[in-house]
Every structure is written in C-alpha cells, then in structure tokens.
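Contributing: when you submit paired examples, paste them exactly as shown. First protein:
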Amino acid sequence: MALAVMVFTGVHLWQTRDMPAGPAPELAFTLITPDGARTATTLAQWRTQYPGQPVAIHVWAEWCPICQAEEHNVHRLVAGYPVLTIAMQSGPADTVAKVLRQRQLPWQTAVDDTGALAQALGVKAVPAFLVVDAQGQLRGASVGYTSEIGMRWRLWWARVF
C-alpha cells in the first residue's frame, strides 16, 4: 500500500511540476456564459463576483476523451461552486459555444484557442484542475481525471487552510 501511495504521489508531483505556485497569473480572455453571452474579461475581474471564496479553474479540450469522462464531475461541481472552465485549443468562440450547447454544459468558459491561457497556468495536458484561493493564490493543482470528491476536497482545503 505504501508503495502505491509513493508511486501515485510521485506521478502527481511530476505531472504538476510546471504549474506555478503563488499568485494566479493575470489572464485576459473571452468568456462564454451558459446563456451564450460573450464578454471580454480577466481572471481577476471574474473572481470579483465571488469575494472571499476560492474558485476552481478546469482546463479541458473538446477533443479530449478523458475530459469528456470528467464532464459530469464538473457539471455537478458548477452547481455549488464558482468554476471557470478553459477550453484549451478547442477552436474559436463559435466552436466552443457549439460544443457547450451540444453537450449541454452550463459552464462559464474561457476560450483558449491558442493554448496561451493554459501555458500561463503551466498546464501542458488536459484535463487539469486548479484552485485559486480567496487571496488569489494558486493551490490544489491536478492533471488527468479528477473525481468530483477530489475537486470538492481541493476547494474545501483552500477555504479552510
């Protein structure tokens, strides 16, 4: 059991090695809301809607099968927590909006057609999940499939500690 925990921890640390710690980077993006509206905004501006709370950032791609398997976790998380999803290299805003409609995903989604937002977050593979705590610090990063419980735990941890 100890060996399995060590291997899991080692893989997790290797996968998240390039994700920055400290203050969340300032990201500017086009935001698609569940009603289809599009707004130019920044991560800091978006976070002002949720004062004193940690927020989740979920980086996904339309073409990623693991991301599709994880969609139900994010869908349930969005019902109770502020979540910004980032559609990495999934096309322009029209394409991302179409995917959101087709898959019935009620997510606030930043369009990252070039991968620049993901790169600023140190994300090299999808899906990725990060938490920005109430003070604007990046915490609780994971790469690969993350369970709903794992997502909720990371948000709880950022709120309590």
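Second protein:
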Amino acid sequence: MGTAEFKHFGTPDEVREFPKGRLELVTIGGATVGRATFEPGWRWVTSVQPIAKTRSCEAPHFQYHVSGVLHIVMDDGSEFDCGPGDVSLLPSGHDAWVVGDEPAVVVDFQGMLDYARAH
C-alpha cells in the first residue's frame, strides 16, 4: 500500500518567473504539477519564447483553468478561448495570451517540467 502525500502551491518545490508570469511547481507521487499565473498583457511569444527559443510553444499541456481567460492559437490556425472551469488539452505548437484585465491562472498536469526554462 502506498503512502499518502500532499503539497501546497503556497510552498512550491520550485518557482520560475518570466515577464508578466510566474510558474509554481510541486512534485508529488513522482509527477510534477504546475500552477501558472499569467498577468494581463502576458503572451507566450513575448514572455516565454525568448527563454524557450522555439517558434511556438512546444510544451504539451493538460490544464484546468482556474480564473481569467486565455486565447489559444494552434500552429494549424485553430483558435479558441479557455476560461474558469475549462479543461484543455494542447499538443505542441501553439501561442496563447491573456484576454482582459484579470490574470489567467491554470493548473497544468503535463508539460510544465521544462516550461520557461532555458535549454
């Protein structure tokens, strides 16, 4: 029988900051979960692309959207908004930005291990 574990994003294992954003990571049960906060004016191409040095975001995401709205544009041209209560599955190859004046907060169960980290 396994051992129960719990963590809190108030005391993350790692924090990464980037222009208009912050990522808090906790590792639990052998998995890393990230909570990202994107401030109004945040856009992947201007805030994270200079760190990632890729044409578009190559991190796949499986996210629960807590608050705010993110507009997502896939490399294939499809686009949509995600807001509170939405769950999104994004393969590699996308851009995103905050819509409106409220920070967008997402909890990501995949893809944050190397997010906003220089390679």
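If you have annotations for the second protein, write them as plain sentences, like these:
Helices lie at 44-47, 49-52.
The chain has one domain: 14-108.
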